[in-house]
Design brief:
Layout: H1 8-29, H2 40-59, H3 73-89, H4 108-118, E1 119-123, E2 126-129, E3 146-153, E4 159-166, E5 172-177, H5 179-192
Antiparallel strand pairs: 1-2, 1-5, 3-4, 4-5
Length: 204
């Protein structure tokens, strides 16, 4: 479920989007059993399937809000981009051959919102930015899925950024982040929160 500002009306709609898929999956995979009768792992399996439909529904709002109280996917993406932009630009402020390991924890649906706008990948031989449907990137991130962002400066002083999505089943997808979109989203966040631009924002 999306983090950040959200209304009770939105939460009800979000939950309602999960009801049909949850009942459908329960009937086809666990016939004759109630959700409450399932093991924790089985409940997680059903919930993750149903949640995919709710996340897809929310992402379809794009840069529009469900209502005044609920952040749009674009606003959520800007929130994430502002933080990631700092991590991406960090190598510029480090000494030669310097390195740092950072642990960054994010909420599931905020990650999908960011990837919807900023992910760069190769599809059918073409470089594509973002996605329209979650199936294009193998679905939403599940509880045990993760992603790793690596930013480093090569020997020519050029910043190299890669993003690896690691799935619970062992599948990996290596892609990159659109620097242009990353800067745009970061600037949107700075303006909406009336923040001062810092050197590490590197928005020039």
């Amino acid at each position: 479920m999306p983090e950040g500002a959200r209304s009770q009306a939105f939460l009800r709609q979000y939950e309602e989007k999960m009801v049909g898929p949850r009942e459908e999956y329960l009937a086809s995979h666990f016939p004759g059993r109630k959700f409450s009768d399932l093991s924790p792992d089985e409940q997680e399996e059903v919930a993750e399937y149903a949640n995919e439909f709710a996340v897809e529904w929310w992402l379809s709002f794009d840069d529009k809000r469900f209502d005044e109280e609920t952040l749009s996917p674009r606003e959520m993406a800007a929130n994430v981009a502002y933080k990631i932009n700092h991590l991406v630009n960090l190598p510029k402020f480090m000494p030669d051959n310097g390195s740092v390991d950072l642990l960054s924890v994010g909420h599931k649906t905020s990650t999908e919102a960011f990837l919807k706008f900023a992910l760069e990948r190769v599809a059918n031989g073409d470089v594509v930015t973002g996605f329209e449907n979650l199936v294009e990137i193998g679905g939403s991130l599940k509880i045990l899925d993760s992603w790793e962002l690596v930013a480093k400066t090569d020997s020519q002083g050029q910043l190299q950024v890669s993003l690896t999505i690691r799935r619970e089943n062992g599948d990996t997808q290596v892609c990159s982040i659109s620097r242009e979109i990353l800067r745009q989203l970061s600037l949107e966040y700075i303006k909406s929160h009336d923040l001062n631009i810092k050197k590490i924002d590197c928005l020039d």
